[in-house]
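so im writing up the methods section and need the NMI protein record in one place, dumping it here so i stop losing it
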Amino acid sequence: TTKIPFRLNQNQALLTFEDEEVAQRLIKMGKHTVNLDNKIADVRVKPFTLERGIKFELHVAISGKKIKVSEVPELSIHEDWMRDKLELNFYKSEKGGGEVENVIYDKRSRTAVITFLRPGAANSFVRCTKYPFFVNGKCYRLSVHPDTDIHLEKFQLYCGISKKTILLKGIQETEDDDESVQDMIEIHFQKPSNSGGEIEKIKYVSKGGTWVCFEE
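--- predicted struct ---
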């Protein structure tokens, strides 16, 4: 599930309660009188709707027989010879390797796909990002990556609604810093005598604005 952004503007605050009923009760009341540093402020409690969110399942399958190789050196040798060199290097690898079933080499992109005969042989190279490759008495470094199959399932859009969160508007500016004002707001709305309850998260903005993100 992707994070859903919400724009919090100047002199506004967002409060997320542990209990959904508390948030809905405060919304129905509409207005609240809050004591901010010995100043009485009438703030408005508003419900709000988030933008659309996206849900999907990401499936990643890592091959146990194939690895991808990049940064193959540009050498003036025939492609078949380079293919044989790659096969020989990975067949005799100190990392494990084993008998190679197939090598697909692309000279233009300087990449190759090595397929081993034994299942699980590719697992030896999962954490090997740089692999020594010996050709004509020289040692080059190849980049090795696991071969993965990635696809999405159950992709869907949904409307983001936070029933446990309220939006406060019209908070008067004071000489106190944001953190102090935020603490005073939190104390007020946590008290059952003010129809409040336990608060999970709170965010207050006195100047400018900021983006906050919601997760399902």
